[in-house]
Amino acid sequence: MVITSKKIESRNLIWILRCPTKYDAFELSKLRVKIDGETENLDREPGEGLLTPEDFEKLIYEDSIAEKTLFLVAEVEGKIVGFTRCEGSKLSRFRHKAEFGICISKEYWGYGIGKVLLENILMWADTVGIEKISLTVVQTNTKAIELYEKYGFVEEGLLIKDRIHKDGNYYNTVIMGRVLDK
Q1: d(C-alpha 67, C-alpha 2), whole Å
Q2: Which end of the chain has fewer CB atoms within 10 angstroms, the N or the C?
Q3: Residue limits of the N-acetyltransferase domain (predicted)?
Q4: Structural element, H or E, at residue 15
Q5: Which helix or strand (DSSP H or E) is residue 113 part of?
Q6: Among 119, 82, 76, 134, which residue's Cα sits nearest to residue 103?
Q7: pLDDT digits (tens, 9 = 90+) for 63-93
Q8: How is residue 142 annotated by DSSP?
Q9: Domains of the chain by range and CATH?
Q10: Facing residues of 76 across strands?
Q11: Is this structure's pTM higher than 0.90?
Q12: Measured between alpha carbons, how far is 148 from 12 in angstroms, rounded to an integer?
């Protein structure tokens, strides 16, 4: 699905919220690797699970025509600095559900970009009939967990020793969900 672009002004930053186009594929591929190297909060090390520009181009196209999938980017001065992707299930038994994640370049943390991406994903999900939206987050990412809780997400489970970080220590993953009240 595609939404209309929006100009956002928050915390002394002006940026554009929009859906990506095929012309963003190369930049998204590079940005994903960059962000993976900036934080331990994501699932991948830099270069793991690599999505090439061609992969992104295909994903952007498929998401643009899918009824229950939304891909959004945050653009500052013509440069993509973050993105979110919410994917609905194609399986009949899970058609009421979707999962999402948010990635933002470290230099743009603290500007409220994640909050705006989350708000727009939730507004969209509510309008397309997604009754449950889920995510996973490393337990030490307390800022993200607090943000999700403010928007109605609750902890549904904890995966113990689910991941190993560069420091050699194990970390838990929190499973969170938000159910739309009907």
Answers
A1: 9
A2: C
A3: 26-181
A4: strand 13-18
A5: helix 113-127
A6: 82
A7: 999 989 999 999 999 999 999 999 999 899 9
A8: H
A9: 6-130 (3.40.630.30)
A10: 79
A11: yes
A12: 23
For CA atoms 144, 20, 128, 112, the dihedral sign is positive
Contact 28, 59 (CB under 8 A): no
For the purposes of burial, counting CB atoms within 10 Å of the CB of 103, is it exposed (0-12), middle (13-18) or buried (19 or more)? Answer: buried
pLDDT per position as a tens digit, 12-61: 899 999 999 999 999 999 999 999 989 989 888 877 888 999 999 999 99
Query: Distance between CA 146 and CA 136 in Å, rounded?
Result: 13
**Lookup: tokens for 145:** 């967990």
* Contact by Cβ (8 Å): 80, 13: no
Residue 2 C-alpha from the chain's centroid: 16
Structural tokens at position 142: 């307390």
User: Tokens in use for 181?
Assistant: 């009240």
